[in-house]
Amino acid sequence: MCIPSEYFQLANLSRLHSIHVEYDPRAGGPAPPLLANLIENHSSSLVNIRINYQFTSFDLSIVKAIGTCQHLKSLSLNRVRLSLEELTGLLVACANVGQGTREEVGTDATPEHRIGGLTTLCLEEFGSPRSELDLSHTLPPLSHLEHLRVVMMLGLSCDSKLRMLALCPNLKSLSWGRNIYERQLPAYQWAEHQESGMWPLLTSLDVSGEEFRDEILSRFINNSPSPFERLLTKGTGFGLLTYNSVISAERHYNHI
Fold this sequence. Notes:
This is F-box domain protein. By secondary structure, the protein is an alpha/beta fold. It is built from 7 helices and 8 strands; from the N terminus they run E-H-E-H-E-H-E-E-H-E-H-E-H-E-H.
């Protein structure tokens, strides 16, 4: 049974905090402009958006609507197909979340007047499986983002994946996974980024989807600005160097 389009034209539900949309190919789903309208009509109250919707194209209207949200804290996108333009627009929209002010003085407000920003972003099975997405544009930082989960980022080049991670300097937890057809992250470049202090607050790291070597894992531990509380990795990379780093570090691990 298809959800009537009238449901997506609702407005002024001042207590609507969450939207969760699941697409069923047998029943159909809302056209992208309808979903965009629903989000934009409740941009002042939405805190959580979760979309599991297999668009052939994500549509920039939804991307722009996400960017208008004032209090959005969590965004989850699953099985969404994105062009480079849409992916770039999405990252800009995530950075724009909460950039309005209580006094409605616009996006150039000083930080103390801003409402806040997106803190949790989950992207699973998204991207473009048939083309290479190269994030060569200069993009605004996701300075409020604390928790990032990425699984199967299709079509994005390795350098672009690192550029995306570099947009998130205040990450506290990172979960990164990929399928066998995706290229592995350039581990040495990632380790160099971490050693330079790019993610000083990172305390939870799940790279169980990557084939990192023992040397790289030990560098993660030895050079992390903050002590890891949670570390998940494939056993194939956990060797003597990593073991020695774990037992010799004067740090506390709650979960390994």
